[in-house]
Amino acid sequence: MSRAFVKEQESVEELPDRLISEHANLVTPEGLAHIESEVRRFNAAHAAAQMGDDRSLIAATARDQRYWSARLASAELVPPPADADHVQFGSTVTIEREDARRQTFRIVGEDEADPGKGSISFVSPLAAMLVGKSVGDTIRIAGSEAEIIAIG
Hints:
Blueprint: H1 3-13, E1 25-27, H2 29-51, H3 55-74, E2 75-77, E3 92-97, E4 102-108, E5 119-121, H4 125-130, E6 138-141, E7 144-151
Parallel strand pairs: 1-2, 4-5
Antiparallel strand pairs: 3-4, 3-7, 6-7
Helix pairs in contact: 2-3
């Protein structure tokens, strides 16, 4: 085996850790369940990689295992909002833009955010504009106004 091949495999084992946000790790009940699921998934994947003696997969699964374990350890469960008087973490908010387009977003933790599916992180600029607002309030988004028409 050439030395170059050995060096390549050694470098694969030293994957940098995934970055962990500086923000509080607020999670919804669904977000906590997702993190717990990822911990189980990567524990199993890491064990399988070790059994298969796949060095690059061992490194990759170990990195993800460390990330999700850290996220689980720092998770701060936020119960669902008790009321819909104002936008808060866990709220589902519907806005109507000036062109009559309606969009609905749920404000969630960073690891569960998926804008394509309508969930946005509580640290996103849009969530920051929405939090604390009530039905009838307006925000400025993408150069135009949008009105909050529903909070759930």
